[in-house]
Amino acid sequence: MTRDSIVRRITDFANRADPYPVYRELRATPVLHEEEGGPYVISSYWDIEALLHDPRISSEAANLADPGEDAALLQSEETGGLPPSFLRLDPPEHDRLRRIANSAFGPPHQPRRIDGMRGELREIVTALIDGFGDARGIDLVDDFAYPFPVTVICRLLGVPREDEPRFRAWVDPLVASLDPGKRQEADEEFARTAREARMQLGMYLAGLAEERAKEPRDDLLSDLVNSHGPDGAMTMMEVLSTSVLLLIAGHETTVNLITNGMLTLLRHPDVLERLRREPELAPRLVEELLRYEPPVQLVPQRTCITDIEVRGVTIPKGSRIWLVLAAGNRDPERFKDPERFDPDREDIQHLGFGSGIHICFGAPLARLETQIALTELARRLENPRLVQDPPPYRENAVLRGPRHLEITFDGVRP
After folding, report:
1. Is the pTM value of this prediction over 0.85?
2. Which ranges of 186-235 does DSSP label H, i.e. alpha helix?
3. 136 falls in which pLDDT band (50, 70, 90)?
């Protein structure tokens, strides 16, 4: 790719703090294909929405005509001991596995599992904010936005919270492998690290799964191991790949959503003050955050199982397709005044959680966590202020969010 390549600039870390000028430029060519073998990049809201619902679009890497720079990582996934999670599968296998997982996670089989956690979520948030003590400054990521969803998913899944340092060492290289910028640079060492991390995390969860098979508890892992519904039971390998997905997705996106949310509120102090006075604003505010600063910026792992046409452009069978959700979320053809953060926005059918059969599995939990987190931070922190703007960002172009968010304040309200 050339230095001026828009695709290169999407993944370029220099643009991580503010990728939206690149996305505006990208939308001028709604179907962008810069070079032979490169991805077809889709950036308009309506095209992304349509393709997320199109059965001709595949999530399975095996359908890529040319794996290209993904070859080493794809091989590592195939030899990593675990089958792909349902996120990387097409129907009917995707549907079967997702139905089994959902029967343990929410309606209709567990209708109160998430909503029933409200009190527990508030207790965790209260304890974390109380833990600020007499400090007049924190790193929101390390002191709040990371430990909160990690604690929640550990309790929900049935993973000991004290094991977090162990599984974090395995999660980090797996999350890095999602970034197309990293995949373009991937060598054997990078692929080997991802493969070993997946194997180690799978072995760790296998030990817990074996315990739950013998002595079930009130957690998701027990439900997955012992599920025998109309879709049958998951194999142990399917349980493990699903558990890896839930553990990672269950906290990584929410860390970014909470951190991006607080950063946005600190940049809009009038909205922050309004949230403090009107906590009932939280649900609408979080939906606007999902549009304005989505934690997942793009979906780079799609292909087509036949030739398709988008806006007069033929995308050949087996081509790599990137769906840039964050660009679609600020598409002026879809949203009025899209660059403005407006929690009173009426029309808010965003792409923050995706759409179609792969819509975010944990969206109800992420919404609730973020609503409670931001409401309590707004209520309890006295005169919070940013130390650095923009803050330092994580390298990942897919899961975009600050690596640290230093905040000072005058005190903590009870």
Report:
1. yes
2. 188-214, 220-226
3. very high
